[in-house]
From TrEMBL:
It comes from Rubripirellula reticaptiva. GO terms for biological process: photoreactive repair. It catalyses: cyclobutadipyrimidine (in DNA) = 2 pyrimidine residues (in DNA). It holds the Pfam family DNA_photolyase. SUPFAM superfamilies: Cryptochrome/photolyase FAD-binding domain, Cryptochrome/photolyase, N-terminal domain. It is an enzyme of class 4 (lyase). Keywords: DNA damage, DNA repair, DNA-binding, FAD, Flavoprotein, Lyase. GO terms for molecular function: deoxyribodipyrimidine photo-lyase activity; DNA binding. This is Deoxyribodipyrimidine photo-lyase. Belongs to the DNA photolyase class-2 family.
Length: 458
């Protein structure tokens, strides 16, 4: 059922200042880059109507966003162009400005009655909110919209594994499966005059930005909510029903939604509701998908929220750190530098194909990500070097990189959220994955020839 009610658990005051006289109510959009099923946006509309003010939505584009390159910026700008059109249709003003995010938001906050922001969980996102809540002369509200269950409701501590958070998250999720309807903005705000970047000319915007352009945009993924919804529609009609079946390499039954989730171009709640409501699909298939979207994804968010060292090996459980340490000097039969790995110059055609696909498509199926990452541990000389190489390549090439999922899953390769296994060379008690293990999951030969055919000439 559609409702404009935003659960109190999603809302938090970030300072104790009052609502003041101002030219507009300001929504600083950063994580939830969408106009649909965005609790922060709907809350901002409600506050603007209450304040009898217009609504300005502002996005801060910074050239030195951690680890971002041309591939990420283009995808994001395509999404922001979608947001601009959608907000315009709702008579809401939207501005994207380039600069230091806290400075440009604080600048706009000087003329605001109130400021509303959404919620990302990485270190710099938290720091930006703290600075802005301090500097804004008005009340600042945070509204959490990129999880199904608000992170502190899911758990009040860092969880050990999926098994320790699953019951609580599945139980509490029931209270949050409420679709969100839109509230009309009473005061047309499209005439608010604020200068920003022209999103009808993304190429020009990209030329103005000094960002790393060594990683090119990809053909298979275009950014934006409309693209995300098209992917979801295809997934629901063609693949959800076989989500719990073994994968076909040529046509994997996955949603391809991770880049859109990463940039907040689609809401996890909206996806989950559509999955639940889909007729003619088994409960097992739906549950298997929700295990990933709800339990695993929100376990990763629990991890970056409660673990300060989420991007360092210090985050590992002690059993994993100890066993890797004990086996660090074990002999490696193959040894590659970070450059050889990045150039896909190993003896293993399946691994090379995965690296090539990652570089050119910006995406890999989960089984291939596992194999790719486990082999980096096996073929590099220290755990620290393996961790840094895997995380750097992950964040450089994946469109969904630099996400809570990136940090949790790269650390998972080294034992995070996992249990001890039978001890073996190099890995110690950390889970191992062999080439045969990959062969049991996918048709490796077909996969390798498919990648060679598709990307050989590039
Ligand atoms: C070494 C390694 C690195 C990874 N790096 C990333 C990364 O940088 N960014 C990223 O989003 N995911 C990462 N993952 C998790 C997972 O592989 C991807 O989320 C998934 O493959 C994305 O494809 P999809 O959207 O088609 O997934 P689907 O199977 O359609 O799943 C739907 C959604 O559920 C979530 N999900 C699926 N699998 C996982 C998982 N294992 N853990 C947490 N959430 C999951 C994602 O949000 C995904 O979009 C990594 C996994 C491994 C093993």
């Amino acid at each position: 059922m559609a409702s404009s009610i935003i659960q109190d658990d999603r809302i938090k005051r970030l300072n104790d200042k009052d609502c003041v006289e101002g030219a507009y109510t300001l929504y600083w959009m950063q994580q939830a880059q969408r106009s649909e099923c965005n609790h922060a946006l709907e809350f901002a509309v409600q506050r603007a109507n209450e304040n009898k003010s217009g609504l300005l939505v502002a996005f801060g584009l910074t050239e030195d966003y951690p680890d971002a390159n041309h591939r990420h910026y283009r995808f994001m700008l395509e999404g922001l162009a979608n947001v601009a059109n959608a907000l315009n249709r709702r008579s809401i003003a939207f501005v994207v400005r380039n600069g230091k995010v806290p400075d440009l938001v604080s600048d706009l906050a000087r003329d605001a009655c109130e400021l509303i922001c959404d919620r990302g969980y990485l270190r710099h996102q938290v720091e930006w909110r703290e600075i802005i809540a301090n500097e804004a002369p008005c009340a600042v509200w945070q509204v959490e919209s990129d999880v199904i269950v608000p992170v502190e409701i899911a758990s009040d501590k860092r969880e050990y594994a999926a098994r320790t958070i699953r019951t609580q998250i599945n139980e509490t999720a029931k209270g949050f499966f409420t679709d969100l309807s839109t509230t009309s903005l009473e005061k047309d705000s499209t005439r608010l005059s604020v200068n920003g970047l022209d999103l009808t000319k993304i190429d020009d915007v990209l030329l103005q930005l000094s960002v790393d352009d060594s990683v090119r945009p990809v053909d298979d993924f275009k950014g934006g909510t409309s693209q995300a919804k098209a992917k979801l529609k295809t997934f629901l009609s063609r693949s959800l029903g076989s989500y719990d079946d073994p994968i076909s390499v040529l046509d994997p039954a996955v949603s391809f939604l991770s880049p859109y989730l990463h940039f907040g171009q689609i809401s996890p709640l909206a996806i989950a509701i559509e999955v639940q409501q889909k007729m003619g699909v088994s409960t097992d298939a739906k549950d298997a998908f929700l295990e990933e979207l709800l339990v695993r994804r929100e376990l990763a968010i629990n991890f970056v929220h409660y673990e300060k060292e989420y991007d360092s090996l210090k985050c590992l459980p002690s059993w994993a750190a100890d066993t890797l340490d004990k086996h660090e000097s074990d002999k490696r039969n193959h040894h590659y530098s970070a450059t050889e790995l990045e150039n896909a110059e190993t003896h293993d055609p399946a691994w090379n194909a995965a690296m090539i696909e990652m570089k050119h498509r910006g995406y890999l199926h989960n089984h291939l990500r596992m194999y790719w990452g486990k082999k980096i541990i096996q073929w590099t000389n220290t755990t620290a070097h393996a961790y840094r190489t895997a995380l750097d390549l992950n964040n450089k090439y994946f469109l969904d990189g630099r996400d809570a999922n990136s940090y949790a899953n790269v650390a998972w390769l080294f034992g995070l959220h996992d249990r001890a296994h039978q001890e073996r060379p190099i890995f110690g008690k950390v889970r191992y994955m062999s080439a045969d293990g990959l062969r049991r999951k996918i048709d490796v030969d077909t996969y390798v020839s498919q990648i060679e055919n598709e990307f050989e000439s590039l």
